[in-house]
């Protein structure tokens, strides 16, 4: 078996550690029988707009034509084939990073920003990637099947990056539609041009070349008649050529004057007709064995010989795939070695429909076989997608706990939510307590309080089987999930946390998180000495095996707070530095551990007299603050108390008052917060003794902090309101408040001042 592929970027992982599917980064190679498209290449060579759309229904050879032009253009080419998983904006940005890095090595902080994820791609990842793409010079960036990106942030990110292209560079978007992008507006502004059906249709010479490639020689009049009859539809020309070689004239477009034809005005009809033609002109001409092979392998997005062998219990798949490629059976090679392929999207749609109709019972079995092979190769994410297609909740439940955590750590929030959505709808959700525990932890870190509580309720309905040897472990996870959310006050939190720790072995992946939660519960219950010992034990254990960075960083922050309470600033400083190292090494700066460390680090910096460092920590914490709410009430209040203390140390009572208002909002929903209640009262009393304070960047509210990154995009106030589920008037009101606090008079000035203040990264 061949070794792992290395793509054009020469790397095997995305920012954040996910393995790269190198085949996504390779343009369609030249193949025998594919005719050159000089007319298309000539038009593209004359096109100077920074964005080029290649839009046409299925079967117009969009990708092939663009690849031919790009190979002969002379500029470096970065190619990315989009699939449904790229609707997670951080996965899309990760692949763009890899593709661009292959052309011109990008600064290391770009990958770090993408790997960090966070609540918004606009605070760090997009500004840094935008600055990097501006430095890549004149290049061609191709996104094939771009219209499969339906995520608003992903589509907007691509448009934003187009605005950062260097002079002479172009972004080429290939699809059946323009997707979510405002094509008319881009054309009117002179930013985009379109390569459409008329441009991609075959002319007489191209039709003749296809016929000649299969050994069919027709008089010129017949070629012109065929071209007109087929209206230049490339897929129809290829299929007709195959039909004629097999024994006669068999045009694949109906000849009647009232027959529907694939036109740019009716792309849906083109797709329907194309599917019918593929059935009649291709599938019906295959022998039984070839047809079975095609149908059953259609469950695969990407095909290789060994995977097809495992799917079908045979050993000749690689040879068959190579043969089909040579005969141009709509099989597209995905790498230079011609070991990985995919079916043309239209053909795959037809094949899956046929398979589901003919052998519905086989679809699940084939997906299960594919999942088993992929899992054996270490391709667990692709394996999970096949398990989802098979609706195999029990088997997916074995993979999901670690995969949910890994996706969240890599900033792939949309991916984690998509998996969780699917799993929650399966009957296995109430049987897989480890998935429920992992999911509820992540939802709380994301600030998704209602969803976290719903999963906690699912956990509470879980009942262990006494005969199950893992029942005690499952019960520990159920209690740990309930303790983490602190829904029922500190006493219940402490009881649940202690019961959760008791049966866990120190080597268990959940032991350190359980110890961290127990230590925090002890602190909230006023058991300071016990809390300190528990947290120290968790931190020490994690150091020896580099485990649970999220829990340990938050635990280190809690332990530093205890040290500050004892006036032991040296210990607090040591714990902060350790937490900062964990956060940096694991890309957690834009997540809850980042704000936990930032908050206590700001207090330590104020105490040491380093006011600039304190301001920097406060500014960075503002990026994450909207995430931290009553989903994790103890963390929401603890971090805001630390930040408020730092604000007072910097003589900024207005900033402290903003934080106190947010604390009150949390306590309305979760009033029973143990020792934090007295600390909140003391902070309120301090602020009542202080007058003055000027609105500034530090007084931005949670709502304003949510809006701020979107001001850096091309979105109108109406479009921003749709994203945030508020009215355009609300957006305008909040924007005016942001301008005032940032001493700005426009969106661009506000973004510039926000970057100077450290609230977002600069794009230059």
Alpha-carbon distance between the two ends: 46 Å
Beta fraction of the residues? under 5%
* Spatial strand arrangement across the major sheet: 2-3-4-1-5
> Residue share in helices?
55-70%
Helix vs. strand class? mainly alpha
Summed over residues and divided by their number, the pLDDT gives a mean of 88
Major sheet details = 5 strands, parallel
Query: Measured on Cα atoms, how large is the radius of gyration?
Result: 29 Å
Oligomer classification: single chain
Q: Shape, please?
A: globular
Total strands: the figure is: 8
Low-confidence stretches: 1-11, 249-265
Helix count, per DSSP? Answer: 37
Textual characterization of the structure:
The chain is mainly alpha-helical and 764 residues long. Helix content is 60%, strand content 4%. It contains 37 helices and 8 strands. The strands form 2 sheets. The protein has a 5-stranded parallel β-sheet, sandwiched between helices. Helix 28 runs antiparallel to helix 29, helix 31 packs parallel to helix 33 (675-688) and helix 35 (717-724) packs across helix 36 (728-741). Mean pLDDT is 88; it is low at 1-11 and 249-265.
Question: How are the SSEs ordered, and which strands pair?
Answer:
Layout: H1 38-45, E1 51-55, H2 62-73, E2 77-81, H3 89-103, H4 108-116, H5 125-134, E3 140-144, H6 152-162, E4 170-175, H7 183-188, E5 192-195, H8 197-200, H9 204-213, H10 220-230, H11 234-247, H12 267-281, H13 288-297, E6 303-304, H14 305-312, H15 317-326, E7 331-333, E8 340-343, H16 345-358, H17 360-376, H18 380-389, H19 393-409, H20 413-424, H21 433-446, H22 449-461, H23 471-485, H24 489-501, H25 511-524, H26 528-545, H27 549-565, H28 569-585, H29 592-608, H30 611-624, H31 633-649, H32 653-669, H33 675-688, H34 702-707, H35 717-724, H36 728-741, H37 747-757
Parallel strand pairs: 1-4, 1-5, 2-3, 3-4
Antiparallel strand pairs: 6-8, 7-8
Helix pairs in contact: 1-2, 3-4, 3-6, 4-5, 11-12, 12-16, 14-15, 14-17, 16-17, 17-18, 18-19, 19-20, 19-21, 21-22, 21-23, 22-23, 23-24, 24-25, 25-26, 25-27, 26-27, 27-28, 27-29, 28-29, 29-30, 29-31, 31-32, 31-33, 32-33, 35-36
